[in-house]
Design a protein that fits this description.
Elements: E1 7-12, H1 19-28, E2 33-35, H2 36-44, H3 51-57, E3 62-63, E4 66-67, H4 69-76, H5 80-104, E5 110-114, H6 118-122, E6 129-134, H7 137-145, H8 152-161, H9 165-171, E7 174-177, H10 182-197
Parallel strand pairs: 1-5, 1-6, 2-5, 6-7
Antiparallel strand pairs: 3-4
């Protein structure tokens, strides 16, 4: 009889909801976390594995520090064909890193996939459950507008591109509230980890 595979929890949340903080809490509890954004940054950063392919497809968009994000953004913005070319370079590489992550953690009871745009882009395919990080709208607004360079208009534009928080919460299997105290949020994460790691190994759902 083969060993049970890890329970895969997708972690997502809109801008300013505290997803990165919650992901760190999972790590503190010893839960492996695959960060999709960090994987892309590594692949596109200094000496990143994808730099030659990106430079060949979009000349002048890379340099010693890796991908020049404004230049690459300008090269693909509003151009579906260009965006598809970029995604054809990036997505297989990220999938390979994710597969390596799963092989390295095949004996763990629980792993987390940190996916910022889960509902907007990737969907929940391959996940056993989804946890949405959420906070009241006023808390979210205060957090985001406190960021350097953020404006009310820019915040509104970002929100317009994201699935509304209310819908994310409705579609999620679990909701992690960060609108409360840090200890309360940490306790909620701990309780969720205990619940998912203590599940019957024959269970296939959340």
């Amino acid at each position: 009889m083969s060993a049970p595979s890890p329970f895969i929890l997708g972690l997502t949340g809109s801008i300013g909801m505290g997803k990165s903080t919650v992901a760190a809490m999972f790590r503190e509890l010893g839960v492996p976390v695959f960060d999709a954004d960090a994987a892309v940054h590594a692949l596109q950063g200094p000496d990143g594995a994808l730099l030659p392919a990106i430079e060949a497809a979009f000349p002048g968009t890379t340099g010693p520090q890796g991908v020049d994000r404004p230049k690459l953004g300008n090269a693909v913005f509003g151009n579906r064909e260009a965006l598809a070319r970029l995604e054809a370079i990036v997505h297989p590489a990220v999938a390979e890193m994710r597969a390596d992550f799963m092989r390295e953690n095949a004996d763990r009871p629980l792993v987390v996939f940190d996916i910022p745009l889960l509902y907007e882009k990737t969907g929940d395919r391959g996940l056993d459950a989804v946890a949405v990080v959420s906070a009241p709208a006023g808390v979210q607004r205060d957090r985001v507008l406190a960021r350097p360079g953020m404006t009310v208009d820019k915040f509104a534009q970002i929100l317009a591109l994201q699935v509304p928080d209310e819908e994310k919460r409705a579609r999620a299997d679990y909701v992690i509230d960060t609108g409360t105290t840090m200890p309360a949020t940490r306790e909620a994460v701990h309780a969720l980890v205990e619940r998912l790691t203590a599940r019957d190994s024959s269970s296939s759902g959340p």
